[in-house]
Write a structure and sequence with these properties.
Number of strands: 9
Structural class: alpha/beta
Bound molecules: 4-hydroxy-3-methoxy-5-nitrobenzoic acid, manganese (II) ion
Order of helices and strands: EHHHHEHEEHEHEHHHEHHHEHEHH
Helix content: 40-55%
């Protein structure tokens, strides 16, 4: 018996959906060169990032079926991926460089790897224009170059936005030095997908010792924190049109909104922190108007419907999280959600077409 979780059984493929196309919006890929560079980092031990080390020494070093199958699938941008999409009933994958992308490297390495990866992804999208779409990888280590690469990706390569894998060597995008990236996204009118990463060294300790640093929980805590930092630091007062996409049912932020609003107001009024300034609006208003969320990895009707009820049915999108979570039965489960047909069509298809201009 294989230890690969819930592999798709090709003998029971998921057929086409009734009345909508299924567009999966947080799907990972990686070129062999990225993994060569990850291996170099692991061997040289120059990165002081326990999250990176534990994640990638597992995926690149473990003989387990899960690691080997993911490493094989994630590098394919051709027939194998399309066969898997067909077996699971996925019409389109929106592809992004896997986490942490180029964000583990020094700036020159990161800038050049982002370019090369984007060129390769664009080539794959050209070969399969009805099945693939892409997001531009950027290197926040060099914010000006990242802004330029986002522009090149969108204008010349046809990408639908940018992906940033959470913190960059422990730094968060609310730091104004990164704002050229937001300026470019706003000017190009494209979203930035903030995809999770493991918590940085400064916060990973208690997660790591309990095995909770990765996709099970640490990703969500860390990425939810990142998104909330953008809100409370006033990024959306500076960039009111900026649109951020979060995975994993909004990294749980929708669930927290009432308390965040209440406590944010109390904190501002009490002047408890020098760094906490009044905002033009309530935190919940930014989450409702500057964010989209996908259900990547959360094939669970209560959580999806809760997001729809908090953010509106126009702001919740389908994602699978291939190849990390590749389960045909999840697609069947989501098809069967108790939800008006037009809302289901928004979830699987129309919202993605609008947000990513597919
Ligand atoms: C995992 C999950 C790894 C996701 C990922 O990137 C990732 C995992 C390294 O299960 O280890 O993107 N995910 O988004 O849930
Ligand atoms: Mn993912």
């Amino acid at each position: 018996m294989s230890d690969t979780q819930n592999p798709v059984n090709p003998s029971t493929p998921v057929g086409p959906a009734k009345g909508y196309r299924r567009i999966a919006t947080e799907e990972a890929w990686a070129p062999p060169e990225l993994f060569r560079q990850y291996r170099k980092l692991l061997e040289s031990r120059v990165v002081d990032d326990p999250g990176f080390n534990t994640m990638w020494s597992f995926y690149l070093g473990s003989p387990s079926d899960r690691a080997r199958s993911i490493i094989e699938k994630i590098q394919d941008l051709g027939e194998q991926r399309i066969r898997d999409m067909d077996a699971a009933g996925i019409d389109v994958q929106l592809l992004m460089l896997t986490s942490p992308g180029v964000q583990a490297f020094d700036a020159p390495t990161a800038v050049s790897l982002a370019r090369d990866s984007n060129d390769q992804l664009a080539e794959a999208v050209r070969r399969h224009p009805t099945r693939y779409a892409g997001m531009a990888a950027v290197a926040p280590q060099d914010p000006q170059a990242a802004a330029k690469e986002l522009e090149r990706g969108v204008r010349q390569l046809g990408f639908k936005g940018g992906v940033i894998n959470d913190h960059t060597l422990g730094e968060y995008l609310d730091d104004p030095k990164f704002w050229p990236i937001f300026e470019a996204a706003e000017a190009l009118d494209v979203p930035i997908y903030i995809h999770p990463n493991t918590p940085p060294k400064s916060m990973i300790g208690p997660f790591l010792e309990s095995g909770l640093d990765g996709a099970i929980y640490g990703f969500a805590v860390e990425t939810g924190l990142h998104a909330l930092r953008l809100i409370v630091k006033g990024v959306f007062d500076r960039f009111p049109k900026l649109q951020i996409v979060l995975g994993h049912t909004g990294e749980a932020l929708p669930f927290w909104l009432y308390r965040i609003d209440y406590m944010h107001r109390a904190t501002v009024l009490s002047k408890r922190y020098e760094s906490v300034k009044p905002l033009r609006r309530k935190p919940s208003e930014y989450l409702r108007e500057n964010f989209y969320v996908t259900n990547s990895g959360v094939a669970w009707e209560p959580a999806i419907r809760f997001c729809q009820s908090v953010l509106g049915v126009d702001r919740v999108l389908y994602a699978m999280d291939y190849p990390y979570q590749f389960v045909a039965d999840e697609v069947r489960t989501l098809d069967a959600m108790d939800m008006p047909d037009e809302d289901k069509k928004k979830f699987f298809q129309l919202n993605a077409e609008r947000v990513f201009r597919l």
